[in-house]
Amino acid sequence: MKSPRGPLARFLILGLALTLGTTAFLTSSAQAQQQPERRRTLLDLLFGERQPVYVPPQDAQPPRDGKTRKKNNRSVTTIKTRAPSPRAAATPPPPPKLDNAKKVLVIGDFVAGALGDGLKTAFEDAPGVQVETRANGSSGLVRDDFHDWPTQLPTLITEVQPSVVVIQIGANDRQQLVTAGGRFDFRTDEWFSAYGERVSRLATVATETRVPVIWVGLPAFRPQNMTADALRLNTIYRSSIEKVSGEFVDIWEGFVDQDGRFIVTGSDINGQPVRLRGNDGINFTGPGKRKLAFYVEKSVRRHLGDMTSPDLVRLDASNLPELVSLPPSESKAIITTPPIDLFDPELDGGDELLGGILPPSSTFPTPRDQLVQNGRLPDPPVGRVDYVKRAPQAAAPPASAMP
Fold first, then answer.
1. Does residue 210 belong to any structural domain of this protein?
2. What is the pLDDT of residues 152-207, one digit of tens each?
3. What is the mean pLDDT of residues 9-22?
4. Backbone phi and psi for residue 300, each to the nearest 5 degrees, phi listed first
5. Where is region (Disordered) located (predicted)?
6. Could you tell me if residue 55 is inside a domain?
7. Residues 263, 281: Cα–Cα separation, whole Å
């Protein structure tokens, strides 16, 4: 039989070859998708190629209670925090101030404002003390056209009716001073002379109100020239207030180190290291305000007396204690006893000591009686250290026996 020839035969053979090739390619592709191709090793050439073993994928662990979530193709695990316990006791609010609470008036610049905040914290638990801060942060004694403290102070005292006046001022006064005699530059003798007169005027006005006055000095600041000026101004404040029988409180040591240099971090009122000043080296932090008031607190308490006690309460019809706290059944069972005279020799109604009988009196004289009556003590007993036995003396021979 002859093989078919011609174009039709060639077409059939070509189609059969394409069909077989396509089938083989699809089969190899499916096997390649199930198992990745592995390189043949020397052992495969010698002992034959091993059949690939299919390894199923491991089961992925499900997320735990929705704590893991995907974000930007990354797994993020959220941690649940414990809710605050409802039993946690909240800080009790401070007690309300009494209607007759004594008031402390604080005036001055921004340093006085920080001092007022510290005094409010110091007397927060004292219902008998109320702090009134009337500070003006940009004020001073140089620019009296901006705020005139000697003129405003009597009006404030009449309005507030304070028991103590606290003054702290001068941090803004490092500038030119204008008077009727001319303009004086800072750090000149004329400037210090005119400034001292204004300080004396304010101190005199404060003391004429018959209210105790406490003048607080300036603290140290970060700028060195400002610190040096504060030292000079403190001498003026001290001398002026002491001339009118006022009190000056120096706070300098609380805001400098042992070498007298400015510090940002130091010890608070409890001795713990804290930050006392702000980033500018001028203003105060919360602990710094409290430490600022710590130096003034002692003087204020001395002027206010018992009103500074935190245990002071006001008694009215709503909080009077009960006079009889016992139930009626127990109050009837109380047995009262009459008072006993401490000078009565017969407190128990008897005339004998512990129910005993006094021994009969002896007729033998005591050593004391023998010493009084006979002038000599009886012989000590035998064996005592003062007992001395004398040897008997020999009798003298008769006179006839003598030659």
1. yes
2. 999 999 999 999 999 999 999 999 999 988 999 999 999 999 999 999 999 999 99
3. 72
4. -65, -45
5. 52-99, 358-403
6. no
7. 9
> What is the DSSP secondary structure assignment for residue 6, as one 8-state letter?
S
Kind and range of the H or E run holding 79:
none
DSSP H helices, 166-261, are 189-207, 224-243
Task: Flag whether 299 is in a domain.
Answer: yes
391 inside domain: no
- Between CA 351 and CA 358 the distance in angstroms is 11
Q: What is the CATH number of the domain that holds 264?
A: 3.40.50.1110
pLDDT per residue over 304-347, tens digit each? 987 777 766 555 666 666 655 555 555 556 666 666 666 665 66
Range of the domain at 244: 102-308
Higher pLDDT: 267 or 374? It is 267
Q: How far apart are CA 156 and CA 169, in angstroms?
A: 16
- Residue 43, both tokens: 């052992």
- pTM given for the model: 0.58
Question: Which amino acid makes up residue 308?
Answer: T
Which among 170, 194, 192, 193 is positioned nearest to 180, based on CA atoms?
Answer: 194
Taking the C-alpha atoms of residue 89 and residue 261, their distance in angstroms, rounded to an integer, is 43
Q: At what angle do helices 224-243 and 189-207 cross, to 10 degrees?
A: 50
CA distances from 148 to 143, 202, 205, 274 (A): 8, 10, 12, 36
